[in-house]
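Example pasted here:
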Amino acid sequence: MALRIHHLNCTTMCPPGGRLMDGRKGVTGPAALVCHCLLVETDQKLVLVDTGFGLNDVREPRSRLSPLFLDVLCRPQLHEEMTAIRQLERLGFKASDVSDILLTHLDFDHAGGLDDFPGARVHLLDAEYQGAVAQHTALDRRRFRPRQWMHQTNWVTYPTPKGGERWYGFECVRELSGLPPELLFVPLLGHTLGHAGIALQVDGRWLLHAGDAYFFHGEMDPMRRRCPPGLRFYQTLMQKNARLRHYNQERLRELARRHSGEVTVFCAHDPVEFERMEELEKVPADSPLRTLPVEARPTLHV
């Protein structure tokens, strides 16, 4: 089955720290981090990968988002036109066209748009759902915001696999209920205890949306791993299991090193990766650029 992918930035976050957070050289002022979501067109369905912030987050931010993230750590620039639902409408779709939403995890900046798609089934790992509902710690209560998803009833949850089939060395859930086999959950635990990447087979290659398994493109450099200090601190602050997070980052680096010609890895918040993938969306399917690792493709505009 042929998939068509649209890359959506569903709100830019502008945390303090400038290049200490986003690594940009020669740029002053706040950092700029994207919320990289995907709209997937299958033969019969529309599928979203994450939702970013939603309409109600824009309209009622104080009642839906923690002040810690709204005013201090993330500072999202909340504009209605950046929400997934408004971007879909500009593409000619409507909310009811989205049959399924695949969540990397339930953090506020990934799940805020769920109530804009009330008819969609929401797929995620069971451990993520249970952890978000339990709200065990003060940080959990700030990152998992039930008001964003309390009215959602169409949950489809999956156990974290202990074995079974492997995908490029990763244990994964291959069968997503009612969805084509070109879409896979790839457990990448650590940032949260039910965190997952989403793998998509497109034009003979795989894309892996790694969510918040890492935050900066330099973390995937197998020769010179690097990450701005502010983002290193933020990842440490938000991690639920440091050992698993570092382990899965290392596996992602190995995947990028060994299989860059077959798999393109990107995360949820890196603007450099988002711009690369957005440009790739414009490249014809039969172009030889499609066979290059994404970091080796020339920029199509300045």
About this structure: The domain at 4-282 is CATH 3.60.15.10 (Metallo-beta-lactamase; Chain A). Confidence is low (pLDDT under 50) at residues 287-292, 296-302.
